[in-house]
Amino acid sequence: MHFVTEFVLLGFPGQREMQTFFFFLILVVYLLTLLGNGAIVCAVKWDRQLHTPMYIFLGNFAFLEIWYISSTVPNMLVNILSDTKTISFTGCFLQFYFFFSLGTTECFFLSVMAYDRYLAICRPLHYPSIMTGKFCVILICVCWVSGFLCYPVPVVLISQLPFCGPNIIDHFVCDPGPLFALACIPAPSTELICYTFNSMIIFGPFLSILGSYTLVLRAVVRFPSRAGRTKAFSTCGSHLMVVFLFYGTLMVMYVSPTSGNPAGMQKIITLIYSAVTPLLNPFIYSLRNKDMKDALKKVLRLRINQN
């Protein structure tokens, strides 16, 4: 039996002019994402007023977003300009591993950030003693390590399937659905394991986030001060906006093994959570947060003065 040594990622097929348009559009999104998230990382690092758990989590989240979008977009840009549009077998599964590991880490970070807001709003007197610097570092390490320990099993299971041709993936990333479709033999047990695994990774943190914010909303509506309610809703609203944008698209793609989304729809949904969400996060968090805006202005002035 012949096994393929490379895959063809079709990406966004079309006329050369359309390909060029997609290239520059995605390049601009990528550069803006690096700039926006990089600014947040620098602001959190250099402004001592932001050395609090909420902003340390946000800085790590922005750093994560830089790597998350970098796991797919540079290869996507090369693919658009390429005539062959090929990716090696090993390269495909490495991209699969890093893309999904970073996405899983993002799920865990969103859950931890929700827990931090729950402690700050619902248990303000105990917050300093619970969310200590040491505990904050432990939570960050758990998110990173757990995210990268989750996906070796699905990657190994899918990579062991026989791929004897064709080798064309109608997508711009190496995704489980198209890979299952290319396998020479049906693998219902492996599919079930992978989709169950995806559902647990998505729903576990998501239910944790919903639980945290249900308690937060119950506490906020009881605030005697209208200004206090407005500030709490503003802080939590930014986080919830990111959560629903990210999780909404993930659930459409990966929760149901029989979702049967057409290839075009899969590409659009994947593009939203892999590129658009990392682009929007800095705007959502910084433009709705006075402390972050002040820190970004301070960092910008510092850089200008140094030059």
TrEMBL record:
<dbReference type="InterPro" id="IPR050939">
    <property type="entry name" value="Olfactory_GPCR1"/>
</dbReference>
<feature type="domain" description="G-protein coupled receptors family 1 profile">
    <location>
        <begin position="36"/>
        <end position="285"/>
    </location>
</feature>
<comment type="similarity">
    <text>Belongs to the G-protein coupled receptor 1 family.</text>
</comment>
<keyword id="KW-0716">Sensory transduction</keyword>
<keyword id="KW-0807">Transducer</keyword>
<keyword id="KW-1015">Disulfide bond</keyword>
<feature type="transmembrane region" description="Helical">
    <location>
        <begin position="135"/>
        <end position="157"/>
    </location>
</feature>
<protein>
    <recommendedName>
        <fullName>Olfactory receptor</fullName>
    </recommendedName>
</protein>
<keyword id="KW-0325">Glycoprotein</keyword>
<feature type="transmembrane region" description="Helical">
    <location>
        <begin position="93"/>
        <end position="115"/>
    </location>
</feature>
<dbReference type="Pfam" id="PF13853">
    <property type="entry name" value="7tm_4"/>
</dbReference>
<dbReference type="InterPro" id="IPR000725">
    <property type="entry name" value="Olfact_rcpt"/>
</dbReference>
<keyword id="KW-0297">G-protein coupled receptor</keyword>
<feature type="transmembrane region" description="Helical">
    <location>
        <begin position="20"/>
        <end position="43"/>
    </location>
</feature>
<feature type="transmembrane region" description="Helical">
    <location>
        <begin position="268"/>
        <end position="287"/>
    </location>
</feature>
<dbReference type="InterPro" id="IPR017452">
    <property type="entry name" value="GPCR_Rhodpsn_7TM"/>
</dbReference>
<keyword id="KW-1003">Cell membrane</keyword>
<dbReference type="InterPro" id="IPR000276">
    <property type="entry name" value="GPCR_Rhodpsn"/>
</dbReference>
<feature type="transmembrane region" description="Helical">
    <location>
        <begin position="55"/>
        <end position="73"/>
    </location>
</feature>
<dbReference type="GO" id="GO:0004930">
    <property type="term" value="F:G protein-coupled receptor activity"/>
</dbReference>
<keyword id="KW-0552">Olfaction</keyword>
<keyword id="KW-0675">Receptor</keyword>
<comment type="function">
    <text>Putative odorant or sperm cell receptor.</text>
</comment>
<keyword id="KW-1133">Transmembrane helix</keyword>
<feature type="transmembrane region" description="Helical">
    <location>
        <begin position="200"/>
        <end position="221"/>
    </location>
</feature>
<feature type="transmembrane region" description="Helical">
    <location>
        <begin position="233"/>
        <end position="256"/>
    </location>
</feature>
<dbReference type="GO" id="GO:0005886">
    <property type="term" value="C:plasma membrane"/>
</dbReference>
<dbReference type="GO" id="GO:0004984">
    <property type="term" value="F:olfactory receptor activity"/>
</dbReference>
<keyword id="KW-0812">Transmembrane</keyword>
<keyword id="KW-0472">Membrane</keyword>
